[in-house]
Amino acid sequence: MPRKAATQSLADADAAQGGVAAVDRALSLMSVFGPGDAALSLGDLAERTRLYKSTVLRLLASLEHARWIQRLEDGRYALGPEVARLHGIYAASFSLEHVVVPALQELVAATGESAAYHVRQGNARLCLYRVDSPHPVRDHIRSGDLLPLDRGSGGRVLTAYDPVLGRAPGPDQHLYARIRADGYFAAIGDRLAEVAGISAPVFLAGGGIAAAVTLTAPAHRYDVRHLDTVLGTARRLTGKVG
User: pTM, whole model, 2 decimals?
Assistant: First the structure.
């Protein structure tokens, strides 16, 4: 009988429901490559995936054959040319709008308030996408508008997670530290006295800040219960944008 692993493998701990275990394990070998990992040894792959080396070798044979993995002269393993080929197809077909706008539409449907996607542009923030609330009384920001980076919940989040601005000495240093600790910023009247906002960060796959998802409403309709919905939207977009 085969040995039973003392520790559950990475793939088995997060197996696809109704999927194929061997495929999950093969994909887990590729998923453990991270920034700076030009190549990994057999031992590295076994340790990170929590698979036996014998199992890793069998999976690598299939991945090498399909050119997902390549074995280097020093015996280590690197991602193969098939990854680059598919990345080119993905990059050419990727549409940020098709990823972000449906998420904002869902956020508006769930809360009844306006949702926006802000990115930093120089010393300001750009409202890249916006979906309006169905209520006639709302703030009237449009896609393409430039807004302050140092006021408003979206600007505060973008600043807090900026590796330079968010840690620069200044009167708002403690505020930005708290935003990073909390993982969001909610306020009434930070940019306009009658407007409330809740913003959460959206991260790149590599971990850097990509954007801020913001829900805005008139101050009298502000509802702190919408925070979880905003955070959920930001989490769903994280790693899917660039």
Answer: 0.67
How big is the CA angle at 200 (ends 196 and 202), to the nearest 5 degrees?
145
d(CA 145, CA 191): 14
Contact of 215 with 230, CB cutoff 8 Å? yes
Q: Residue 58 is encoded by which pair of tokens?
A: 């069998």
Instruction: Give whole-number Cα distances, 115 to 56, 135, 155, 194, 217, in Å.
Output: 45, 13, 14, 17, 9
Closest among 131, 120, 126, 198 to 165, alpha carbons compared: 120
**Is residue 19 exposed (0-12), middle (13-18) or buried (19+ Cβ within 10 Å)?**
exposed
Neighbouring C-alpha atoms within 13 Å toward the C-beta of 226:
26
Non-local CB neighbours of 225 within 8 Å, separated by 6+ positions: none
DSSP 81-94: HHHHHHHHHHHHH-
Q: Would you write out the chain's pLDDT as a tens digit for each of its 242 residues?
A: 445 455 788 888 888 888 899 999 999 999 999 878 999 999 999 999 999 999 999 999 999 999 999 999 999 999 999 998 887 777 676 688 899 999 999 999 999 999 999 999 988 999 999 999 999 998 888 998 999 999 999 999 999 999 999 988 989 999 999 999 999 999 999 888 899 999 999 999 888 999 999 999 999 999 999 999 999 999 999 998 86
